[in-house]
Amino acid sequence: MTEDLPCRLIADADSTAVRSVICVRPGSLSADLARFSASQSQFILQSGFAAARGDLVLVPGHDGVEAALFGLGADQSHLAFGDLAMRLPEGVWRLLPGDYDLDRAVLGFCLGAYRFTQFRPAKRKPAILALDHLPKHPMSQAASIWMARDLINLPANLLGPSELADACQQLAQAHGAVFHRTSGDDLREAYPTVHAVGCGSDRAPVVASFTWSGSKAGADAPHISLCGKGVIFDTGGYDLKPPASMLRMKKDMGGAASMLALAGMLMQADLPIRLSVRLGCVENAISGHAMRPLDVVRTRRGLCVEIGNTDAEGRLVLCDLLAEASDEKPDLLICAATLTGAARVALGPDLPALFCNNQDVANALLEAGRTTTDPLWQLPLWDGYDAWLDSDVADLNNVAGKSHAGAIVAALFMQRFLAPGVPWVHLDTYAWNESTRPARPEGGDAPGMRALEAAITAMAAGSITFSGRN
């Protein structure tokens, strides 16, 4: 679990039980071989070690393994260290100084060390990294992403709407934020579309929210607002998903988990910002109380929505949250959701689709994705498709009358509920790794959150400006 993460790194770097890891690039291989005896150097070369990314050789000594050589190739990112924790033998290891960034090394090491172990132990324990000091920023990032991974990996029988709200409350309380939980008749009144999605389940819908300000944030500090889709399981409702499409629907709260991860990073860094977080925590189930195709739902904004498809529920969960959040006129409004299969068809599982109504904002986020090796990919808010959401009986339909551009249409639907002039970012994310790769173990994940954190950090420092406030 998340609270175990600091135990992956220890401060006693002088312990006699610590073995060394030498991180090698191809150009420094000859110099690094000079650290060893002639026989050890021959062993290293004969094992095929060439310092390519991911190359690993364990160097024998008098009492077993004396050291390890780990190849970085030309990779300067955290991914170069992403499988080190699970490839080194168990025990305590120290990274010797070299041609790499320590923060990126620690981040990659920690992200790669994650395994979901609540119901069975991992096949092996990760290696432990010995450091003279704990670098706070990568540790905070890794801990926040571990938290999101844990939430996404939990099965829906153990993570209902109330439990997801509890997780939000725990994070808020850990940072002294002001938490609020809306449910029952209050939720029906304040968030009617959240209620409509969740009323088919025996587990009642909840909107979990909190507000926080950094210790150096004044009344005019940038206001960042986050909204997350927290559908803990999505059957599709009466427009029932086929069994194969339901297999991973426990991850349909990945947008909410991602927003919690981002909020955790921002609060741990104590940025001089004002932060608002809202999560729509619901289950899309089938019962005599569930919404039906062709029902009409009145939204918080006052617009009436015809339900063209009960499986297009994520945009309904978010539209009320976005209406409330945008009415506060934040300097930046971000929402995240596992929203459409269309985004996955277009971009695959690794790239969250970025939609944005302000190109300066989009450019800043795309650049942050490149510099953090946490990429995003922009898709257009193409207003030529907006009329596809027209309805004959209501202000709009929750789906288009055409089968094309599903991710764009979903974003256009949510854009209808924004107050004018608010810079808005929508991430359509998969929130899942199909297989284990460096720093990205199979299962739940929160891609794009480090990019968002980097951009918001620059905004808080005045390095970039997102809105027209200046």
Describe this structure in words.
The structure is a single chain. It contains 15 helices and 19 strands. It folds into two domains: 2-134, 3-Layer(aba) Sandwich (Leucine Aminopeptidase, subunit E, domain 1), CATH 3.40.220.10; 140-460, 3-Layer(aba) Sandwich (Aminopeptidase), CATH 3.40.630. The protein is 32% helix and 20% strand. By secondary structure, the chain is α/β, with parallel strands linked by helices. The strands form four sheets. It has an eight-stranded mixed beta sheet with strand order 7-8-10-9-13-17-14-15, sandwiched between helices.
Name some characteristics of this structure.
Aminopeptidase, 2 domains
